[in-house]
Amino acid sequence: MVLRFFPREESFFDLFTEATGNVLRAARQLRELADDFRDVEARAVAIKATEDLGDDLTHALIERLNRTFVTPFDREDIYNLAKQLDNVLDWIEAAAARMAVYRITQVTPAAREMCHIIVSACEALVDAIGNLRALDRMDGAIREINRLENLADHLQRDAVAALFAESTNAIEVMKWKEIYETLEEATDQAEDVANVLEGIRTKQL
Fold first, then answer.
1. Would you list the domain boundaries of the chain?
2. Fewer Cβ neighbours under 10 Å: the N or C end of the chain?
């Protein structure tokens, strides 16, 4: 029997729950922007404020990691999970910022659908992170994140192909190609979070 002379620091679970909820908040803000494309600059600023809060939460996680002797799982995994969640948030904010900076006047159906996929992926992240204490229960959420990333990837490819086939405005093509790629990258980063979680589960089970 292994004796624990130091208790594990359990507050990481609460911090990860808070950080993931904040990522979902930003995703929903982006979806609301795509569904009702008004006051774009102000709403992009609001998403940036959510991203700033995410930075604070990431710093709190890393500071806690540096001050904790016994962690609930590998220190490297805690660090990677914190950074990957922050990456999801960064790309969500980047998508909103590009829409504002590029003076987009109307969202395409493909972009709107990708924003909805991002929300679904972030909801699955919340589900997965909520099961950090019960790792055997996160399989379904991880599979859903992978499925959504594949869906976003196919949608992004089709949208870019349609741009080149249908648009004669080179500047608009460049703008939308970058926006589509940024939206898809948010789902890539969500899948990277799922990969970190799979690694944690493999080590712990």
1. 11-204
2. N
Fold of 11-204: Methane Monooxygenase Hydroxylase; Chain G, domain 1 (1.20.58)
Cα–Cα distance list, 196 to 34, 51, 144, 146, 199 (Å): 29, 21, 15, 13, 5
d(CA 151, CA 187) in angstroms, rounded, equals: 9
Contacts of 150 (CB under 8 A, 6+ apart): none
Q: 50-66: string of b/e by CB count within 10 Å (b at 16+)? A: bbebbeebbeebeebbe
Residues 152-180: tens digit of each pLDDT: 999 999 999 999 999 889 999 999 999 99
> Integer distance in angstroms from the first to the last C-alpha of the chain?
17
Given pLDDT bands bounded at 50, 70 and 90, which one contains residue 3? very low
pTM: 0.93
The arithmetic mean of pLDDT across residues 82-92, rounded, is: 97
Amino acid at the residue 1? M
